[in-house]
Amino acid sequence: MATAALPRDHAAGASHEATGLWSWITTVDHKRIGILYGATAFLFFLMGGLEALLLRWQLGRPDNTFLSPDVYNQVFTMHGTTMIFLAVMPLSAMFFNFMIPLQIGARDVAFPRLNAFSYWVFLLGGLFINSSFLFHAAPNAGWFGYANLTSIQYSPAINIDFWLLGLQMLGVASLAAAVNFATTIINLRAPGMKLLRMPMFTWMSFITQVLLLLAFPVITVALILLMMDRFFGTSFYVPTGGGDPVLWQHLFWIFGHPEVYILILPAFGIVSEVLPVFSRKPIFGYTAMVFSGIFIAFLGFGVWSHHMFAVGMGPIADTVFSLTTMLIAIPTGVKIFNWIATIWGGSIRYRAAMMFALGFIAMFIIGGLSGVMHAVAPADLQQTDTYFVVAHFHYVLFGGSIFALVAGAYYWFPKMFGRMLDERLGKVHFWLMLIGFNLTFFPMHFLGLNGMPRRVYTYPAGLGFSFWNAVATAGSLILGTSFLVFLINIIKTWRTRPTTPIPADPWGGATLEWSIPSPPPPHNFEEIPTIDSRDPLWAAKRKAGGTLPEPVRGSGAGIHMPPPSYWPFFAAWGILIFLVGFLVGVKLPIILAGAALLLVSVFNWAFEPVE
Amino acid sequence: MPRSAESSFRSGRWSRWLAPLLALVVVGCAEHYPQTTLLPKGDFARMVDHLLRTTVWWATGVFILVEGALVVAMIRFRERPGDPEPKQTHGNMALEIAWTIIPAAILAIIAVPTVRTIFKTSELPGGNSVQVDVIGHQWWFEFRYPMGKDTVVTADEMHVPLGRTVDLRLTSADVIHSFWVPQFAGKRDMIPGHTNHFWFKADTVGTYPSQCAEFCGEEHGRMGFRIVVQDSATFAQWEAAQLAPFAGDSTDSLFRVGKTLFVTAGCIGCHAMAGQPTEHIMSMMGPNLSHVASRGTIVAGMFPESDSTMSIWLRNPQAAKPGALMKLPRPLTEPEIAALVHYVRAHR
After folding, report:
1. What ipTM was predicted for this assembly?
2. pTM for this structure?
């Protein structure tokens, strides 16, 4: 294989990368893997969005029978699971992959094949969990799958097996990626890029990797206990067997709350990149921004039981978790104030990316304030498990994470694909999304406080929930339309070939990714730069009297790049087959076949020649 | 390019939007919310409500200031043609300390009443209380009133006396549910293997809807119950009536047919029922039916109690409530349904 591929690679390497399906399956280039992550996650995002629209359609009027209760429960479980694990996390991973090496001046990540492995495990895990729809057996116990509803007694079908095995797989992908990016950021920074010179996106991504490393093992353990209960008859969570379902809640939320920061910290990073560039002013209070991020992550491990105030943990525990939760508002507030101070006194260019970043701040403030309302434990006894909570976390995860990820998409699209998204469509997208989002989720505050619990497949006409639910459903259609506009924008941009290559630095960027051609060549940098300030590109431009010449796109001859490999792909299949063996009723031959494929793949991967 | 963003901030545009928007809000508020948390009818809920309102005021203040600052910055510092490079400020120690300390102070102001209320609500107030044991089932609520050697057992409807503390012991027979009395207190989970404590004291007579607040499986959305607050005399009457033995009218032939059908059609497998061998069995799968016609609703609050609703339910429980655990061993004929409805509804 290696010898056969060699001449072809050499021929192609002169100008362009190899193309074709096989080159994508075997790629170890962080930029291609980033694009794979992005495309896959965006498709999952559209699927999760479609699920949301089904839910909203069902709730549009009282006593609706559009979805049966069983289907509704499957759809809301998959909506949450998809958006968290298959959309927002991997959309962040797209930017980790593409941007971290570029921002720190590296040629690739520390472990390029492990990176490919992460992607393939994520893809197969996502397909696995969604394939449950084909069997009318999608997971149906909610994304936090509370025990003992998930026990074999109360959920005898394979719905929960799809969920727990799928999550195990996604956990492997996330952990492998976290090891990789943490190592990359620690070890592969360009000379002179001290920790406190790293771009804010790289910083927040680094903190996210640490959170992943510490939080995911907990959910892995919790899920292994659930596997034991379901496949081997143990009773970790089964009260009739001496177990305790509350154990699951503690384990789940020790993972689950840091997970919230895993979803939002990359968004903080993106916004902290976009705001300075489009206000032409450096980030305000860089050090405070870094340390508030670290502080949020640290506190994130000490607040899990604020999801459990109704469990009845007693006044001491309620007090502790109330206060730690309130503390998180302080570093979060610092971030918001520093963002406003960043644009204050600047010269704000209203490009689509900037509008989404500003929209992020405006919406995240609302989510943050309702978060403080939840921290007030006695008040939370009313709000928990109602639509008020649904409103709150959508302001944080949609108004927060999604707005920021879309800002990142408009901001980095030119760098990733060498084409500019249409600004006018981008603004239409923004206004539709802002209006649709608020129309959908703001009324949920009223619904929750007026007594509508969450996760109900319908409600009777007499409770006064009809009006605001109809408004929310109308809003969700606008929200859906906004993403249709985004999709049209992407397709339109794709179909119109640019006549001249777009500049390396279309926005006036501050960070290293804008110093190389768009899209970057496979080897990223002709020469690894030396860094002596926080905004290296701004410093270089200032020194050169305003602008820099367009960078030349070199052939990369003489630069050693890691060769492609198909072993990560096969290793991922090994894991999938291994888990399918459990799904079909603990079939040992299938489990062993999967394990064997994994072992063979990892062995060959380890002894693969690097030349 | 920035023109569109700019012009929409001009105030003139807003007036056109404001009138219909206000109309929307008014229509929204005019609806009646019987399950609302915002009109407390008991002291626990009143404490919670007070705390919520305090927090909302602070949150509104912060919201106006911070969003205001954002909007001012967005308008004032928009790019103008020929702008020079803005001043490159990197931070301001005094400002940063200020906006760390001020939020901390606001949080401290909220934290004090929070902690005080946590402790206040965790203690059962003294005085003459009434004990109610609530047991969650997929998908209905069971209520037991231990009274010396007797126990009132009922379902779907919790009767409580006005002005007396209701001392609740909460658990579950299957999965985790959450007990919620939005008008009187908040929520407390009902966890199998645990006995949780909670309390409230109602101060307004009336009938209030509520429902399960923790996802508990297929029919979580239809797991409702009602809280009936009665003055102490009416409550005592109700208790006495629930304990009164019931023999039925043996001269009523339809009643006798129904009574036999209750056994032969399999109802007795899951339901305790006055005058049947299951009368005093506590661990039946389904709700105790001894005084079912005294309740305002059936099927966990889904239907008002009547001949027609009970017939619909008996004709095909799975069609009326998909996934419900009540499964008929065999389909019933219309005359059988009529006899059973007559028999069951005689139990007041």
Report:
1. 0.92
2. 0.93
